[in-house]
Write a structure and sequence with these properties.
Layout: H1 2-13, H2 29-39, E1 44-48, H3 51-59, E2 84-88, H4 95-99, H5 105-114, E3 117-129, E4 135-140, E5 143-147, H6 148-156, H7 164-178, E6 183-188, E7 192-197, E8 200-204, E9 226-231, H8 236-242, E10 257-262, E11 264-269, E12 277-280, E13 283-302
Parallel strand pairs: 1-2, 2-13
Antiparallel strand pairs: 3-4, 3-13, 5-8, 5-12, 6-7, 6-11, 8-9, 9-10, 11-13, 12-13
Helix pairs in contact: 2-3, 6-7
Length: about 300
């Protein structure tokens, strides 16, 4: 990120009057830096990085969350409801920027200079921590998926030198060799309830994950609902061939793929499996059981309308 900063430093000078830069030095440090800046009076925070780094910064826009009762809805508390987030290019995936039509650094700097603010929803995830097995809460801006995506994330972390699409392709191939479809209990609002085997359940506020896969092609980050894509009991061959259509969103027409919309989603593993992992904005942060709740109009972001 230091290299990214040096390449855009003068361009940021042309659109910002008074600013300073901070570099992260480990996991969740971006959350701490953003929270400190906003608590000290900052009104705009820019982040250069991938979806995982953006996720950390967004969580820093809110007070820390604890879980006394995982079944109880608790709205996150913003540090400054009027604060704005700006996205700069960087990182492995950068999928959320695609939904916001910020494909590269030129578009990102132009959006910051224009100063147009768009208010988007966020997802509030309650999940099971990998290490402690305790319940945790975290906001997400893009997509949290259940199943193969969580395993892919774990493998992507072992391929830090590969570019985004290639890293996800290699990790997906490796995951495909060992992944077994879990039996899941899935509910969406009061409109959908099923016990079923599934390869992937994607709860989307954004449209893309995995380095450009359009898994939730109709998702909008400001419509007050999730788009949920459930890839059912797909064989390894079917999963592999589905990758030919998922980049343009045509996978949703496969008879084993279910699409629904809703504000509240729950997902639990049946049969005592403990290896059903989550992909949270590209990061392998936890496992089932999990609940997903939409937080409408939660964040101001510098992006085209």
């Amino acid at each position: 990120m230091a290299d990214v900063f040096r390449r855009i430093e003068h361009r940021l000078d042309s659109v910002l009057e008074d600013w300073e830069v901070r570099f992260t030095d480990g996991p969740d440090h971006a959350t701490e830096l953003a929270r400190d800046a906003l608590s000290d009076g900052a009104t705009t925070v820019l982040v250069a990085g991938g979806d995982g780094t953006v996720n950390e910064v967004i969580n820093g826009f809110f007070e820390p969350m604890t879980v006394d009762d995982p079944t109880q809805w608790v709205a996150p508390t913003p540090i400054n409801p009027d604060a704005r987030l700006g996205l700069l290019a960087g990182g492995t995936g950068g999928d959320f920027r695609k939904t916001l039509r910020l494909p590269d650094m030129d578009a990102a700097v132009a959006a910051i200079g224009a100063g147009h603010t768009r208010t988007i929803d966020l997802g509030l995830l309650t999940y099971t921590d990998n290490q402690s097995r305790q319940h945790r809460r975290r906001l997400f801006q893009n997509i949290t998926s259940v199943g193969m995506g969580g395993l892919v994330d774990r493998y992507v972390k072992e391929l830090p030198r590969l570019p985004g699409k290639l890293a996800y392709a290699a990790a997906s191939f490796r995951a495909l060799l060992v992944f077994r479809n879990p039996m899941l209990m899935i509910t969406i609002d009061d409109t959908f309830e099923a016990e079923m085997p599934a390869s992937i359940v994607a709860v989307g506020n954004g449209r893309f994950f995995g380095g450009g896969m359009m898994v939730c092609p109709d998702a909008k980050p400001d419509d007050g609902e999730f788009d949920v894509t459930i890839m059912g009991d797909l064989s390894k061959w079917e999963l592999a061939t589905l990758s030919r259509t998922i980049y343009d969103g045509a996978h949703i027409y496969d008879p084993k793929v279910i699409t629904r919309r809703g504000k509240h989603v729950t997902c639990a593993s049946l049969g005592n499996r403990e290896d059903v992992y989550l992909d949270v904005d590209g990061e392998p942060l936890g496992r089932l059981p999990a609940t997903f709740s939409i937080v409408p109009s939660a964040l101001n972001i510098l992006a085209p309308a």
